[in-house]
Design the sequence.
């Protein structure tokens, strides 16, 4: 066993990525939960490098800000002009003269690389005592990539870029992944001697291999088992292809871990998401950021969760949630919108066309239909009737509403914050509540109902309504109704309308 090597990671991330046609630097494009450069840094994680240097150039400030957020231990090194991959590594090592041992260079645009693969490359390099080792792959279509050129004995001779290659070299399907391990001292030696004598007039890092070979230094090739890991991202078509590959990899991992994905092709799970065994994800579902789905929960179809935690046994159907918490066995949707700090306790329900923001629902509380719940605390087992609006904003400030345990809020109610509905209190349907309702009281703000008899016959004669009214009146006087469409239920409902604004339970809420 040799001494543990000191390791330095250098990530090349200064290029513009012209073919992305984007104002966002290429390495900052997102891919299932991380940026391209974020994926590359993650792949290098297990190397436990003493230093991480990221060469930045195009969009340097943006890339620096991103690094500060995701990898504060990394040092950004500015490559003001992008004069090639060799130049980029030279600048990085000049900025870190103390670096010795193994230098691992990673292209910032190769995001599918697995940590195990980088670790294997570095282990092979270090155990061979090589001056340089390149990660290679056999690919079906090598177009655009550097080719691994071997001599008659199969030893690496040089790496040739597509544009500088001979027809024979172009036929080679073994390519350079843009991932390397170098011995720092021997790399420094040759980096200073790189020429720009190539089709692009750049300092190619790949030329280091040819130079080390002719100096008699040992160089190695480490072949990646899965060539898709080495795919780079140069335009948005390639980015989409990488996204599909990563989706499949992530989905396969979760299925093997005991998660049911009913339609993996339309299920997009960020690499940062966690799912428990027996979670079920139905089709057209995106799980993003720090989302977590508990055991036995059913999410989808048609759900997007961003940074949302779903408890065991919960159901979320055709809904969008951001920064929310859904408790065990809670039910959400169809067509619900949970916004940041919507917190739903166990067995609570947020139903159809309901929006919840910065609010807590207690255990078993229900908001089943057509409501806006903003800045509220709703007690356990409270029932919020259809079309209740928590009026939280006075045009300047936001205010909170508190609804007590087992309170019952009738349909089409406005709760005008700040206001409190006490435990076990009722609110009559159609009320606008701006004063507290004490526990156990009925809050009601409705005007008494007034019926103007015969109004339709006088003001809307000769209409379908007038004719229907006339038939109905004849019917109640004992004459047979000419059509059978007016059911008994409707007639009963019409006569049962409450008088004087005192509601019965039947007209305060919905289930
Ligand atoms: C490079 C390799 C090629 C390999 C391919 C794998 C060279 C000369 N060629 O080609 O053999 O098959 O990667 O994907 O190295 N960068 C800088 N500064 C620069 C130039 C590039 O930081 O001055 C960065 C880019 O941002 C990118 C990476 O280096 O992240 C690779 O550069 P790119 O221009 O994409 O190289 P390729 O032409 O793809
Ligand atoms: Ca590239």
Sequence:
């Amino acid at each position: 066993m040799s001494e543990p090597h000191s390791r330095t990671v250098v990530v090349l991330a200064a290029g513009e990525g012209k073919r992305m046609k984007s104002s966002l630097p290429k390495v900052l494009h997102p891919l299932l939960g991380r940026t391209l450069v974020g994926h590359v840094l993650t792949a290098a994680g297990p190397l436990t490098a003493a230093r991480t240097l990221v060469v930045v150039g195009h969009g340097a400030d943006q890339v620096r800000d991103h690094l500060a957020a995701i990898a504060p231990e990394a040092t950004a090194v500015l490559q003001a002009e992008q004069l090639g991959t060799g130049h980029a590594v030279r600048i990085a090592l000049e900025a870190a003269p103390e670096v010795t041992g193994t230098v691992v260079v990673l292209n910032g645009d190769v995001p599918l690389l697995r940590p195990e693969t980088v670790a294997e490359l570095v282990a092979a390099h270090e155990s061979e005592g090589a001056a340089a080792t390149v990660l290679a792959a056999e690919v079906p279509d090598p177009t655009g990539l550097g080719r691994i050129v071997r001599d008659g004995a199969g030893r690496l001779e040089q790496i040739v870029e597509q544009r500088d290659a001979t027809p024979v070299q172009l036929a080679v399907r073994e390519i350079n992944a843009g991932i390397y391990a170098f011995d720092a001292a021997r790399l420094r030696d040759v980096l200073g001697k790189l020429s720009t004598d190539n089709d692009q007039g750049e300092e190619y890092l790949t030329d280091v291999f040819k130079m080390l070979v002719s100096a008699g230094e040992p160089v190695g090739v480490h072949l990646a088992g899965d060539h898709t890991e080495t795919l780079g991202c140069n335009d948005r078509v390639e980015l989409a292809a990488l996204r599909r590959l990563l989706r499949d990899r992530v989905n396969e991992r979760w299925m093997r871990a005991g998660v049911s994905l009913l339609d993996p092709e339309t299920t997009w799970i960020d690499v940062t998401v966690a799912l428990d065994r027996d979670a079920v994800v139905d089709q057209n579902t995106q799980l993003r950021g720090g989302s977590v789905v508990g055991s036995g929960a059913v999410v989808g179809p048609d759900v997007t969760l961003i940074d949302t935690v779903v408890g065991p046994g919960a159901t979320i159907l055709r809904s969008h949630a951001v920064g929310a918490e859904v408790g065990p066995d809670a039910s959400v949707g169809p067509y619900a919108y949970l916004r940041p700090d919507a917190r739903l306790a166990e067995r609570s329900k947020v139903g159809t066309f309901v929006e919840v923001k910065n609010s807590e629902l207690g255990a078993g509380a229900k908001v089943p239909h057509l409501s806006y719940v903003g800045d509220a605390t709703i007690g356990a087992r409270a029932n919020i009737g259809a079309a209740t609006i928590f009026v939280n904003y006075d045009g300047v400030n936001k205010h909170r509403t508190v609804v007590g345990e087992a309170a019952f809020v009738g349909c089409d109610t406005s709760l005008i914050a700040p206001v409190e509905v006490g435990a076990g209190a009722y609110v009559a349907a159609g009320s606008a509540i701006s004063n507290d309702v004490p526990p156990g009281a009925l809050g009601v703000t409705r005007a008494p109902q007034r019926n103007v008899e015969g109004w339709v016959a006088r003001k809307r004669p000769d209409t379908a309504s007038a004719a229907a009214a006339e038939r109905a009146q004849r019917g109640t006087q004992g004459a047979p109704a000419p059509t059978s469409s007016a059911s008994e239920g409707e007639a009963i409902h019409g006569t049962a309308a409450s008088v004087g604004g005192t509601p019965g339970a039947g007209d305060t809420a919905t289930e």
